[in-house]
């Protein structure tokens, strides 16, 4: 999904349709640019919420310990949450966390962790697949909160949360019990 498309949709939600033609360009006056930059900040807040709380971006890395400890600063990307720690053959490893490292028995492991998403700019693509409408709802919510318009923000909060819950709920076939005749 392109950031520009989500910003254009959120322009409709926050009643600023005149800004849609300036999204991703250097055109426009200072006020229009400031509003677009505010919408981009709001989009990044909503995107971070989606990627840290609902649809995490996962990274898998082989790690090697020093004296049974591995420091998070040695990871290739900033850690947001640990998903699993396993041996090379897939068995779970018990571990303990500290503020800056993880401790476990053994010399090496495979760490699966969630990362904080990078800041998005105009023209970027998101790393997580979900409808642009969901990101636009979150952007509108943040924009209205910045404007201290809590009633409007609440409307988009509800739309945003309901859309995210629908995205992450378990999507499997429902199996109903067989019908039986009552005698």
Number of helical stretches of at least 4 residues: 4
Shape, per Cα inertia axes: flat
Q: What are the segments in which pLDDT stays under 50 over at least 5 consecutive residues?
A: none
Q: Termini, distance in Å?
A: 57 Å
Structure characterization notes:
The protein has 183 residues and is of the alpha+beta class. It has four helices and six strands, in the order ααββββββαα. A three-stranded antiparallel sheet has the order 1-6-3, with no helix packed on it. Helix 1 crosses helix 2 (30-54), helix 1 packs across helix 3 and helix 3 runs antiparallel to helix 4. The longest helix is centred in the first third of the chain and has 25 residues, at 30-54. The radius of gyration is 22 Å and the shape is flat. 22% of the residues are buried.
Protein topology:
Layout: H1 3-13, H2 30-54, E1 57-64, E2 69-71, E3 79-86, E4 95-97, E5 101-104, E6 108-115, H3 132-146, H4 150-168
Helix pairs in contact: 1-2, 1-3, 2-3, 3-4
């Amino acid at each position: 999904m392109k950031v520009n498309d989500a910003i254009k949709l959120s322009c409709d939600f926050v009643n600023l349709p005149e800004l849609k033609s300036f999204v991703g360009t250097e055109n426009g006056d200072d006020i229009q640019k400031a509003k677009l930059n505010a919408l981009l900040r709001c989009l990044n807040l909503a995107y971070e919420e989606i990627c840290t709380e609902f649809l995490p971006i996962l990274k898998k890395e082989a790690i090697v310990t020093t004296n049974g400890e591995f420091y998070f600063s040695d990871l290739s990307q900033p850690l947001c949450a640990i998903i699993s720690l396993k041996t090379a053959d897939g068995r779970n490893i018990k571990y303990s966390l500290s503020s800056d490292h993880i401790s476990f028995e053994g010399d090496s492991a495979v760490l699966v962790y969630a990362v904080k998403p990078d800041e998005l700019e105009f023209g970027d693509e998101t790393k997580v697949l979900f409808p642009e409408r969901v990101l636009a709802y979150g952007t509108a919510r943040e924009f209205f909160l910045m404007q201290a318009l809590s009633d409007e923000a609440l409307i988009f909060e509800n739309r945003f949360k309901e859309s995210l819950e629908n995205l992450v709920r378990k999507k499997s076939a429902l199996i109903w019990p067989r019908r039986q005749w009552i005698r």
